Amino acid sequence: MNFFYAPPENWKDDRSEVEITDQEAIHISKVLRNKVGDQTFVVDGIGNRSKCEITEISKKSVLLKVLETSSQEEPTSKKIMAFGAIKKR
């Protein structure tokens, strides 16, 4: 299943519906050819992930009904990766 991003302002106040607009909506309807009734995941960028069902598709937006939501906590430890540059001889 695919994941899509919808900013917090695109979610209904009670988080029962979400609207995806612009390029994400075109990607869902035209590129992936999803139809009404298909399910996908939507994230809001603040730690919430929702399993949703497409209820309406228009030219520039996709309306989804939220089936279930889960939150993901921020990790307690952060990992840092360092890379050394290799000298060209």
Blueprint (SSEs and pairs):
Elements: E1 3-5, E2 17-21, H1 22-31, E3 39-43, E4 48-57, E5 61-71
Parallel strand pairs: 1-3
Antiparallel strand pairs: 2-5, 3-4, 4-5
Describe this structure in words.
The structure is a single chain. The protein has one helix and five strands. It has 89 residues and is mostly beta strands. It has a single domain, classed as Hypothetical PUA domain-like, domain 1 (Ribosomal Protein L25, Chain P, Beta Barrel). β4 and β5 form a beta hairpin. The mean pLDDT is 91.
Summarize the structure.
The protein is mostly beta strands and 89 residues long.
Task: Throw out a few tags for this protein.
mainly beta; Ribosomal Protein L25, Chain P; 5 strands
CATH architecture: Beta Barrel
Low-confidence stretches: none
Biggest sheet layout: 5 strands, mixed
Question: What is the name of the CATH class?
Answer: Mainly Beta
SSE pattern, N- to C-terminal: EEHEEE
Number of domains: 1
Biggest sheet strand order reads 1-3-4-5-2
Task: Tally the beta strands.
Answer: 5
| SS content category | mainly beta
Helix content: 10-25%
Compute the gyration radius: what is it? 18 Å
**Broad shape:** extended
CATH homologous superfamily name?
Hypothetical PUA domain-like, domain 1
Strand content: 35-45%
The helix count comes to: 1
